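Submission sheet (multi-component)
Chains listed below:
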Amino acid sequence: MRKIFDFHGGIHPPENKHQSLQGSIRDAGIPPELVLPLSQHIGTPASPVVAVGERVLAGQLIAEAPGFVSVPLHAPTSGTVAAIEDRLIAHPSGLPAPCIVIATDGLDEWVEQRAPGTGYRELAPGDLLALIRNAGIAGMGGAGFPTAVKLATRPDSKVQTLIINGTECEPYITADDILMRERPGRIIEGVNILRHLLSPSETLIGVEDNKPQAIAALRAAAAGSSIEIVTFPTKYPSGGEKQLIEILTGRQVPSGGLPLDVGVICQNVGSVVAIQDAVLFGRPLVSRITTVTGEAVDKPGNYEVLLGTPMSYLLTQAGYQPDRAQRLIMGGPMMGFTVPDANVPIVKTSNCLLAPGLTELSAPTPAQACIRCGMCAQVCPASLLPQQMFWFAQGKEYEKLEQQNLFDCIECGACSWACPSNIPLVQYYRASKAEILQLRREHTRAEQSRLRFEARQERMEREEAARTAKRAARKQAAEQRAQAAAAGGAGDEDPIQAAIDRAKAKKAAQQAGTGGTTSEREKLEKTVLTTRARLETATAKLQQAQAEGSDLADALQLGVDKTRAKLETAEQALQALLESDSPAPVTPADPAAAAIARAQAARDAGATSSPADKARSQLEGLEQRLEKTRDRLAASRNNGDEDKIVEALESTVVRLEEKVSAAREDLKAAGDT
Amino acid sequence: MFELISQYPLLAALFALVGLGAIFGAVLGFAAVRFRTEGNPIAEQINELLPQTQCGQCGYPGCRPYAEAIANSGEAINKCPPGGEAGIQALATLLDVEAIPLDEEHGEEKVKAVAFIREDECIGCTKCIQACPVDAILGAAKQMHTVIASECTGCDLCLEPCPVDCIDMIPESQSLQTWHWPLPDPASRDIQIIATDAAQAQDRAA
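Outcome: structure written.
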């Protein structure tokens, strides 16, 4: 006899399992429409590979797994894809999720099934795992973790114990119980496949002692093999993975660790049967056994249901009386949740559909203050301190919650069940866990934003530095050119200076010599010469044309006349120019040149005049200006102009008076010399 | 020497204390140089707590400058609307100061949103690209722009420069991925009388 261990805490709620164990497994049949959510498991949702309107056969792949932690989805029966759209699913949020809707045709035609059969022993572990993965199997106990991922052991870790979970500790649910009773052979076949895959040193099937028929059936089926069926006293939640491992092996899975860390792999009996179907018959996971129970159904029992079957269809089969029901729960009374609508589909994790009567599961009584009795800590199977965590969850002290190992909570609800103040404790932990996970996600996102912001900042600084460097280089080059120009002195390199020089040279050339008349005469002479030459050729052409009697003769005559007229005017102009040439003075048209000429004349005059004359003229000019300013000042005062203007004029007058007196001094000094 | 010390115990004590002081001073001085901390660790920690939206609603050009202002010049901790009350609470805990309500002057706490460019209205001016603090807008001159939703921090900085007002801020809708269980309604525990009494009170009322 094997030694049985015990885990801390646990409760004994009323089992209520007998209602649904009246008959054997019934086939729920094919509903007119199947709704298959793309995410029926933990991990990345599957991505559809069929189009709307496409005909699909039973077992055909309709959505593939896009990642490692994901599973594909298969059509449960033959029909046409009616839609791929968001539908309400069985989720506590009541939010819709993408689903593939199949309108069934009732023929249930299967795709060709290829499977290694009993030849699986020849397959490499990787191929066997791929087979399990491609069959779309996800944990059927309730959590829905992809089975192939769970079975993929690391090469360095040895699987000591393979545990098959047939515990089913939650009240009302009997899906695993009936499976063990009616299909023990298939379970043992499945276990053999897993043993081949994992080669564990021991294989245990753990069943609570409240299922004697199931135990007897399994023992009979496993007779002669080394598979051991272990029974232990009924207690909730011994079906929890970590709790079951502790019961059977006495080993505790470390906080945050996996069962593999203590050399254990755990699988639900439902998953084992699905593996057996996939490996021996090539049948993907398209149906499951679901318990329909509660006082609101007339024929409670276990149904073999196609995935995607609307719950309302299944409930009709079980004789559901909506007027007697208070709500619909997917899962058991401890860990299940109320579904938003009776039309949501059955998925891979729907082990139970509970339709309690009006008085069956009483509405939660108002919660009262925590009296710190410690009953929750006594029943907690994870040895946590629920009353402390409740305190921190209320205050949203997430750091302290993590210090209290909140993430070891399996959300079994034992604390809420035991609480004399009816505090919905597990609800606080669920909310806090989710909140912490969200904060972590936000923190990762913030971290990413920070990195991107810093990268951008760095890039902008780099660009700015490059611009500054370029500007500095340009400035330096300009300075160098200026220096070179100054050193060379010629100023040839500076284009502006060169242009000024060219202009000056041109001007000088124009002013040099006898002025513009020479060039004009030359021009006229040239014109006369060329016109004469043109006239000669034109006349020659005209004569030729006249000799030949050409039509062009008239036109040529006209041209010759014109040229002759031009020649005459040119000759006249030249004559006139030659006549007026000698007396005409050079009158520079340029005002600048005129100003220069005036200035030169003035200077020449200045040079000849005495300093006394110069001082006198200066004095006269100043006196004139002073007079003018005084007049303006008076006018401003009369007009009542702004003080500013008056002040300015006054100061000007004062300054001019000073200058006049200074000029008088100068004049005096000049007179003295 | 020893004689001197034994004659004057005061001297012995003096020598001992001065000697110890010199040794420890040297050790501390060496440690100060050897284990010097780079940057400002407090500013670093504050920056960790800020939401990194880089929206500038606090009046600083990004989260890090604000963090440095809090650390170095004692700037108020309530100027970050995206961080909200939770952010102020975290900062208050870190800095061991009183948590103060959010400064309304700098905006109010809003639902997280993601920018969306109405692409047929975009004229491709690249102004929003230049404004985006996290390079979450993709596009080129005279080409349509688009927002990389997963990188958008919802800072609103691209709205103002857009000449054709073709950018919307779409609040993040709740999906199955973001949904989570809410905390139980605290009002459900406000009942001060014993449950059975409450039931009786209800019966009497009915």
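Remark: Chain A is about 50% helix and 10% strand.
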